[in-house]
Amino acid sequence: MKATVFLGGGRITGALVAGLRLAGYAKPIVVHDRHARKLNELKRQYGVNIEEDLHRAVDSARVLIIAVRPGSVRGLLKEIGTEKILRPITVVSLAAGLPLSKLRAHLGPAVRWARAMPSPVCRSGLGLTAVAFSRGFPAASRAEVRDLFGMVGAVLKIPEKRFDAFTVTFSSSHGYHALAALISAAEKIGLDRKSARVAAAHALADGIAVWREGKSSLDELLHEAATPGGTAAAVMDAMNRAGYRQATVRGLRAGMKQAAKNARG
Ligand SMILES: NC(=O)c1ccc[n+]([C@@H]2O[C@H](COP(=O)([O-])OP(=O)(O)OC[C@H]3O[C@@H](n4cnc5c(N)ncnc54)[C@H](OP(=O)(O)O)[C@@H]3O)[C@@H](O)[C@H]2O)c1
């Protein structure tokens, strides 16, 4: 049986493989990476098959997942070479910023290209993966890609022109970043580390969980949580005056700029 093959055995491959195993994914998984240490660790933890030879890894693939950093993608695709892929095969790039138009220039016409942007939260089965398909991508192969990422969380098809904006917005790093900032601010106003962590985690996670129940709008929830003239209102006003919203826009714009830089190579 042909396998799901990951080229690159780093952070996101580790998270995806962990999520797939958690979900009971039973099909063979092969990982190729230039670091034997990473491969052995993935084999030890998740029972994946490891393949140190790139061409043998590609040959064993039913679905090939490109999981190297954007700057390494071209080199990897050149190493594979076009003559190596003559059969129809689904290749899914996880590389941020690299558009399908550039990816299609590699590996020959038999390849069906898709992009996917999973979140490392897929490790726990709670992730979200954005997907985009090249034109003419067969319906059965789309379903195969959706089913694969669907094992580790929700899957959302995004038009490619909005893919990068979606990517920089949905990163789980926002939650971790906000959590780290809130914990550190709480310590500065005198809370001990343990209490700061508990308070900050509840502040961020609980309100969002309630909003996701869909019973109240965000405006209603903000109104309920911040009594006019109260402490929460004072905190929000001060944060907004200090440029909280502008800083968020600047952050997302920087992510978009990096995605465009990845695309240029
Ligand atoms: N991390 C995330 O949360 C996340 C989420 C969604 C998408 N992505 C995308 O997923 C891709 C991988 O990200 P990552 O964070 O997992 O990167 P990573 O931890 O650096 O893993 C990539 C691995 O691939 C290896 N590699 C690179 N070129 C290779 C080659 N030609 N042959 C064999 N192995 C090679 C790297 O080795 P070296 O270190 O020696 O280069 C490294 O071990 C990126 O394109 C990123 O945009 C990441």
Question: What brief labels describe this structure?
Answer:
Rossmann fold; 2 domains; 265 residues; ProC C-terminal domain-like fold
> How many helices?
12
**Which descriptor suits the 3D outline?**
elongated
Would you report the number of β strands? 8
Give the fraction of residues assigned to helices. 40-55%
SSE arrangement, N to C: EHEHEHEHEHEEHEHHHHHH
Structural class: alpha/beta
**What's the domain count?**
2
Low-confidence runs (pLDDT<50, min 5 residues)? none
Straight-line N-to-C gap: 36 Å
Proportion in β-strands: 15-25%
Reported by name, the CATH topology of the largest domain is Rossmann fold
Main pleated sheet? 8 strands, mixed
In words, what does this structure look like?
Helix 1 (11-22) links the parallel strand 1 (3-7) and strand 2. Helix 8 (173-188) packs across helix 9 (193-212). This protein folds into two domains: 3-170, Rossmann fold (3-Layer(aba) Sandwich), CATH 3.40.50; 173-264, ProC C-terminal domain-like fold (Orthogonal Bundle), CATH 1.10.3730. It is of the alpha/beta class and 265 residues long. The protein is built from twelve helices and eight strands. NADP nicotinamide-adenine-dinucleotide phosphate binds next to helix 1, helix 4 and strand 6.
